[in-house]
Specification:
The structure holds two protein chains of two kinds.
Chain A lengths: L1 H30 L6 H23 L6 H4 L2 E6 L10 E9 L12 E7 L4 E5 L2 H4 L3 E3 L5 E3 L4 E5 L29
Antiparallel strand pairs in A: 1-2, 2-3, 3-4, 4-7, 5-6
Chain B lengths: L23 H13 L2 H22 L18 H25 L4 H5 L3 H6 L4 H34 L5 E2 L5 E2 L1 H14 L1 H18 L2 H20 L29 H27 L6
Antiparallel strand pairs in B: 1-2
Helix pairs in contact in B: 1-6, 2-3, 2-6, 3-6, 3-7, 3-8, 3-9, 6-7, 6-8, 8-9, 8-10
The chains are: A alpha+beta, B mainly alpha.
């Protein structure tokens, strides 16, 4: 008898705790919204890109390139039109345009592929046709890392989430299909 | 030490008679002595001081930077990037392990050696013993973090250099500011590390098994980390004890954001308080006469 009571007294709180924890997890998962959103990426990516592009311009010896003069803007999309544009994933595609007299954008924009993590950090890779290869040659003739070829950034989860209303026409592609997540 | 010991009867569970003989400071000094005599604790301190030098030297010699980790791609650009890369790595399992080596063992070793009755008869109450052991584990964790962080930052700066750092918004951070931010980032790891100290104390009290007390916090940390990387758990993510290990990211952004740090303080405080409270209750209620 005492054994049974002891067992019950031991197991009941554990079961209750387990049930409570499971309920809390389910409830929290249901009501949670990801900090990773289209608007936040559209605000952060041009900012980070511009800072790094200015570094690149300094390496290449391009004069007169500042964050302001670049006017970088981005339009992001996750996994094509059928996927909601929020949450981490490696299927984020951002079209970005900027103004650099040294580098014209034939398609009006460049396509950046983003791998966004749940900790609000991401890795972005751009088109080497527009931003140069992995290593570039500086004004002294040395090969150095290209700061914009691929870069990491973390954004503030409290950045405003209102739409940026940036629209960048998709570059003309041979398949005429919108960019999808597949590579 | 033995001169101050009174020959009183062994305390009975729940007994709260104040004892003039043993002060908390006395019990604390005694716990510190026991810790100092532990080869394992000395090895941890020595490794915390020396391992970063070797690791930074190896990282510096790498032809291919570890680009999949934050600041990994800048290891040859700035020593501050190396120190932050190491911080990201340390938060994954190194810091939980280093604190658990002492905190996970400090209560359970009394079980392992069957010395509970002995230590309690040394005119120290359970409460005093609990706090003395907890303070010892907390101080040890902080000392380890201080040594590890200082060794990492110093060796990074000395081996790689103190060039300006590319921050997490692509901005260039001048050397002096970068140094302050790197120190602040390492300091921010103290709270989650203490959270793991308290978790290890709880497991040490609960399982009475030193091996479990040391290994389990590391495994729990890794599970929390894995869980945190999943999509769709955003509401729980801030409440994981591993998330505050990443809250320094905001310091390295162009427009510094400290909300994750503030949330981290709260989360670590809640984890620590809950773990310590449960551990305290378990220890007070325990029937130690059983041996």
């Amino acid at each position: 008898m005492t054994m049974t009571i002891a067992v019950v007294r031991r197991t009941l709180p554990r079961l209750a705790a387990l049930a409570l924890a499971t309920a809390a997890v389910v409830a929290l998962t249901a009501c949670g919204a990801s900090d990773v959103t289209r608007a936040r990426l559209e605000r952060n990516l041009p900012q980070t890109f511009s800072n790094l592009y200015v570094q690149q311009a300094r390496i290449l010896g391009h004069k007169g390139i500042t964050v302001q003069s670049l006017h970088a803007q981005a339009q992001c999309d996750k996994g094509g039109p059928k996927v909601a544009d929020h949450g981490p994933g490696s299927d984020w595609i951002c079209l970005m345009r900027w103004t650099d007299p040294n580098v014209p954008l034939p398609d009006g924009s460049g396509k950046f592929e983003l791998n966004v993590h749940s900790n609000d950090c991401y890795t972005a890779g751009g088109p080497s046709k527009l931003i140069g290869p992995l290593t570039i040659t500086d004004t002294h003739g040395n090969d150095v890392d290209n700061p914009v070829f691929e870069f990491d950034a973390c954004f503030d989860p409290n950045t405003p989430n209102t739409p940026t209303s940036v629209t960048i026409p998709a570059p003309p592609t041979t398949t005429a299909a919108p960019p999808t997540g597949g590579r | 030490m033995s001169a101050s010991v009174q020959t009183t009867a062994p305390p009975i569970a729940g007994q709260r008679t104040p004892r003039r003989g043993a002060s908390l400071a006395g019990v604390l000094a005694w716990e510190a002595t026991k810790l100092r005599a532990q080869a394992r604790a000395r090895w941890v301190l020595l490794l915390s001081a020396l391992a970063p030098i070797v690791i930074v030297a190896i990282i510096n010699g790498q032809g291919r930077p570890p680009k999949d980790t934050l600041f990994g791609r800048y290891i040859h650009h700035s020593g501050f990037a190396v120190a932050l890369l190491m911080l990201g790595f340390a938060g994954q399992w190194v810091l939980p392990l280093l604190t658990a080596i002492v905190a996970g063992d400090i209560f359970a070793s009394e079980d392992q050696h069957g010395t509970w009755k002995t230590v309690l008869t040394r005119s120290a109450s359970r409460g005093q013993l609990f706090w003395a052991k907890t303070i010892t584990a907390v101080v040890f964790a902080l000392v380890v973090l201080l040594i590890l962080g200082a060794s990492t930052i110093l060796s990074s700066v000395l081996i790689v250099g103190h060039q300006s750092l590319t921050g997490l918004t692509g901005q260039l951070i001048p050397s002096g500011t970068a140094a302050r931010l790197v120190v602040a980032s390492w300091a921010s790891a103290a709270l989650p590390m203490l959270g793991f100290t308290c978790l290890a104390i709880l497991l040490s009290v609960r399982t009475r098994n030193p091996a479990f007390g040391i290994a389990a916090p590391v495994v729990i940390g890794m599970i929390m980390q894995l869980f945190g990387t999943l999509g769709g758990v955003e509401a729980i993510r801030p409440w994981l004890l591993t998330t505050p290990f990443e809250s320094w990211h905001g310091l390295l952004a162009q427009h510094r954001f400290t909300d994750p740090l503030r949330t981290g303080v709260l989360v670590c405080a809640v984890w620590s308080a809950v773990c310590l409270a449960i551990a305290y209750i378990l220890l007070r209620r325990r029937d130690i006469t059983e041996g």
